Amino acid sequence: MVAKDAAGNTSTPSAAVTVRTQAAPDTVAPGVPGNPRSTGTTQTSVSLAWDAATDNVGVTGYDVLKGTEVVKSVTGTSATVDGLTADTEYTFTVVAKDAAGNKSAVSAPVTAKTKPNTSPVVKYSYDLTGKTQLKKLSGPIDLRGGINAAISLANGTFEADLTLNPTSANLTLWGFVPVNAKIEFASAGKTTGTLADGVLKSTSAVTVKLPRISVFGFPVSASAKCQTKTPAQIPLQSKAGFDPLAGGKLTGSYTLPPLQGCGFLNDIITGVTSGPGNTVEVNLKPRPVR
């Protein structure tokens, strides 16, 4: 740079200054990971590997998908997906990603089957009765149904099929507003858990449906699509000394997810039903194995 005056005189040039313009945004997605393959299985896991993807700047990691669900994120070219069911076929794909958030197309699918459960299994069946109490609404919701379980003698883990019957409940909001609701429960997968040191622990995923809700006897929602956005995860635990031959009591607390599909009052209904701190208590009574 030089300075000049009105007479046209100019200074000597200033010291040089060097600047660099910003790099253009990286909008180029990585290439697709190649040759996805299974490298091993156990009763509850599948190990996968694939060839590295390429990118104009650099690949920073990979997502492993089961369907549309990301089940593992890694920086290398291999991963082990855990928590699977024995003797079950699964299909996975892999997506590469870079530091700018660009993602590749999904890889070719790879299918693998977990190994069968070869340990001895004992089957039990129970009638289920009990109740659940929503924190924001007074009044119990009766529970009735059944559960069929298969317990592995090798490690005390079990899987079970849970069935809960439709029910109705007369509840109270704010201590004086009567609310009547029809309630349905849809199991979202297997109930799983452990029986160890005489304590039974289980977790059930249940979609809660409210096909009809009335306040002061007037319907405020009558939609078969009114239900929790995601399944409620309901943990239960017995006291010490649980005997699977005799059954017994399980208790727990859970969060009820927000609702959807409940009509123009959906947000209000969600506000007075969903949230944490809800309690559940069930009793298991043995019945012939079904």
N-C termini distance: 91 Å
Number of helices: 1
Structural class: mainly beta
| Main sheet specs | 12 strands, antiparallel
Helix content: under 10%
Q: What form results from the Cα inertia axes?
A: flat
Radius of gyration: 29 Å
Number of strands: 21
How much of the sequence is in beta strands? over 45%
**Poorly predicted tracts of residues:** none
Topology as H/E string?
A: EEEEEEEEEEEEEEEEEEEEHE
Throw out a few tags for this protein.
single chain, 290 residues, mainly beta, 12-stranded antiparallel beta sheet, 4-stranded antiparallel beta sheet, 2% helix
Report on the architecture of this protein.
With 290 residues, the protein is mainly β. It is built from one helix and 21 strands. It has one helix at 266-271; strands at 34-41, 46-51, 59-66, 69-74, 78-81, 89-98, 110-113, 121-133, 137-138, 141-152, 157-164, 167-173, 177-187, 191-196, 199-215, 218-221, 227-228, 232-237, 248-256, 259-260, 275-286. The strands form four sheets. Strands 8, 9, 10, 11, 12, 13, 14, 15, 16, 18, 19 and 21 form a twelve-stranded antiparallel beta sheet that branches. A four-stranded antiparallel beta sheet has the order 4-3-6-7, with no helix packed on it. Strands 1-2-5 form a three-stranded antiparallel beta sheet, with no helix packed on it. Strand 15 (199-215) and strand 16 form a beta hairpin. The termini are far apart. The mean pLDDT is 92.
